[in-house]
Amino acid sequence: MGKLTLTFLGVGSAFAKRNRQSNALVEAWADDPRRQSAPDDTVLIDFGMTGPVALHELKLRPDFAYLDVDGRVNYPAITNLIVTHQHADHVGGLEEFAATTRHVFARPSSNDVRRTRLIATQEMIEGVWTHSLSGGLRALSGRTATLEDYFEPHPLRAMGDGDAQPFSVLDQFEFSLVQTDHIRIHERYDWPSYAVRIADRQSGETVFYSGDTRFDRAMIDKYVVPARLSFHDVQLRDEPTPVHALLSELRTLPESVRRTMHLYHYGDSWDASEYEFVQREFAGFARPAYRYLLFD
């Protein structure tokens, strides 16, 4: 029976300076991370502007030495990459990821590039290339590049959108997309944004990772309440039109739900005395560079 772990590269909001932006590395282990020098498969959930530096720092830790190749981040060790939405704190590091993989790690004799699987809805995959990456990556020597020169596109349909299409690692852990209510141009869900639901086929248990979303009680009841644990974005201070779940809103959830909920994507004032209650009422603030065991 395999194991799955999650490590935040950062846990801060888009504008946080103390804890980097919220991106996460999921690692799948056929045996045990204490006995393996490297995982059997990897899934990176988002890679924002601070992602390259955060991954560079993470590779210096003994338990993450497989991410180091002669002082460089071993980007080819990242097999899968999920994009939840197109804000820069979630996709701003993809250009470095793509360019380094192709131009540093390709085999010069064969131009053999190990392409990481880019996982998102079809609309998101097209948008990431058109609006985020093509400006810096479309020029290659002698020709115009496409997304496929850098990544292997792997489109999924989200849960609730016809037949959902999860993808799996180790033939045990399923990753599915769940639409979230993050930014509204005019109405709910008119701007693409997604959470990630992870299921263990053997135990039937699930873990929920919110991505970015407003407080959505219906989604929480459907996906967070049944989960063995969850990671939910939070905005610490109230405001009239939030685009993240407010801490005051999350406090209205039942204690049984809050006790399994780790809060992330928080601002730089998280350790002020006024937020000491978070450690008592929730699973706590998520910690960067700490391996959370999702399934054992």
Protein model, in words:
- With 296 residues, the protein is of the alpha/beta class.
- The protein has a single domain (3-295), classed as Metallo-beta-lactamase, Chain A, CATH 3.60.15.
- 20% of the residues lie in helices and 26% in strands.
- It is built from 8 helices and 18 strands.
- The chain has helices at 51-58, 88-91, 94-103, 122-137, 217-224, 247-250, 255-258, 278-281, and strands at 3-10, 23-29, 41-45, 68-69, 72-73, 80-82, 116-120, 139-140, 143-144, 151-155, 167-169, 173-179, 194-200, 206-209, 229-233, 261-264, 284-285, 291-295.
- It has a 7-stranded mixed β-sheet with strand order 10-7-6-3-2-1-18. It has a 7-stranded mixed β-sheet with strand order 11-12-13-14-15-16-17.
- Helix 3 crosses helix 4.
- The longest helix is centred in the middle third of the chain and has 16 residues, at 122-137.
- The protein is globular, with a radius of gyration of 19 Å.
- The termini are close together.
